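Two folds, back to back.
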Amino acid sequence: AVEGKAKASDALTTLGKVISDNAGTIDEKLGVQYGDYARTAARSIQETAAKLESKDLGELGNDMKDFVQKSPGIAIGIAAVAGFAIAKMLSGRSDD
């Protein structure tokens, strides 16, 4: 679980950096407004990564429990999407 937390944090940090690095291109191709959206999203993703990294597993478990209690519909949707993504990754590996 600790290794998974570290990998998730690293992946979010990398994603945030990629989005941030490409905000200038988005400015040029789609307009400054969309580049600003990308920069805001990148900051949010990087802040989430930092929060994830700073919490221990017990805190993360409590946060998840609170989230599910407050937003069960969203939690079910996230779980369904995550399950679908995992199933696609695993089924793709069997073709190799």
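---
second:
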Amino acid sequence: MFLRVTDVDMEEWKDVVGYEGKYIVSNFGRVSSIDRQVATKGGSLRVARGKRLKAVKHKSGYMVIGLCDNGSMTQHTVHSVVAIAHIGPRPDGHEVCHKDNNRENNSVENLRWGTKLENAEDKQAHGTEVIGERNGRAVLTEKCVISIIEMANNGRAQCDLAKDFGVGRATINHILRGRSWNHVTGIAPCP
């Protein structure tokens, strides 16, 4: 089987905005330095060959790279570098959204500009929103929250529930008013 050029996605390279002439980024999410002349310790010039940069996974789950300018290295998320170069400047109040919710897939086809609310809605739709037990700081479990609702409905006082479950009274109040854990309780938030 022969492939026509139109059957194959072509990799397109553009300058990394702010690092023109030093780094390029492809529509596939790859970043490379480019050939350039650099000064040696002795003051002479030598050619530094461009090379592909290795992105590393940040604790946030996003892929990051370090870019140097005048001897100073700055860390950047790959998705931001790709989006700015291939989609265009970041609109005010927008952030990069991953269409498939995979933080490691930084292909331009997977990225778009969206508001913080749109990004949160994407995470909720994909089931990856960091709520409830998925929140690393959560003290309660879903089973505890269900027990709290049942015990409150049976007349148990909020201050007693707080003591029983090792949380503050405000936490119990937020659960009962739908301000937190409403994805478990189904309670609509009250003002």
